[in-house]
Amino acid sequence: MSERSEIILADGVRLHAELSGPADAPVTVVLMHSWCLDRRIWQHQVAALGGMGRKAPRVIAYDTRGHGRSGATRLRSATLGQLGDDLAEVINQLAPSGPVILAGHSMGGMTIMEYAHRHPDDFAARVAGLLFVSTTAEGHTHTRYGLPPHLATVLRAGETIGAGLLARSGAWCPHRAVLPALRPAVRWLLFGDDCSGEALRLTLRSLGRAPLRSIGGFRASVGAQQRLDTLAALGDVPAAVLAGDRDRLTPPACARSIADALPGAELEVFPGAGHMLPLERPEEVSAALTGIVRRVVRQAKRERHEEALRMSGTAGVRQAA
């Protein structure tokens, strides 16, 4: 059973979150979704984490500002830096203690990098594991939309202009009416060789809930981010980096650069898969995430055991004195 929660951020924006798993679990997993979608893309992974028995973590899946059931964002706040600050508030309010595992899909992964960049001390103190899914640390450096370079350049220029116009169109969703006509384009852009009808329907429903301001407003920040140096400074955090070899938005080159920068990261590229790995390859993404949880839980148990031994040793010395 999941429980709904709402938190109010420092600037007054309301964030919607869904929490599941034991409240006293030794580890918390925080799931961050992609641009223009919402927390529901993680539904298979939430179910898999809930099925881990005694090792099941606490799970927090939330809608980013301007997405899903969360409140609208102001245009000046539609930035990755703001999302990194929002993540810091989510952790402080909903998971105030214990080790945390962060999992991000696309813009969600970029949010993790901003959190690490803007809150390095908190990150070092709290984060015990990472999962990067279909994301990049280099903005649009590698994005070609599956097209020849010259055509990709033209498309990016048009997309950038269009995003600027959408960003100033307000927090409304008129595009919902034309989504059925956009179905083939969404299928081609976001998915690989195989795509279930339910996965595509969920994606379209999520897109339909994203306001024009969110669709256009985050584009500049997403395209400009450069965080490989931030990743290189994180140390040996258990991490996995996943990508599909048919991803037209964040191709495998994005994942390889993340894995190269992040010490100890494990890279996996799925043949025939596109950008929507949590829905396209749910079992594989869930396996990667539960594997990280198991590693972190084992480490947490070792640390608690070592701390108990230290405390018992200290008590013994005091008694002898």
TrEMBL record:
Which organism is this entry from?
A: Actinoplanes aureus
What GO molecular function annotations does the UniProt record carry, in alphabetical order?
hydrolase activity; peroxidase activity
- This chain's protein is named Alpha/beta fold hydrolase
| Gene3D superfamilies, sorted | alpha/beta hydrolase (3.40.50.1820)
Query: Which InterPro entries does the UniProt record give?
Result: AB_hydrolase, AB_hydrolase_1, AB_hydrolase_fold, Epox_hydrolase-like
Q: Which residues form the AB hydrolase-1 domain?
A: 29-288
Keyword tags = Hydrolase, Oxidoreductase, Peroxidase
Give any Pfam family that matches. Abhydrolase_6
Region forming the signal peptide: none
Q: Which SUPFAM superfamilies does this entry report, sorted A to Z?
A: alpha/beta-Hydrolases
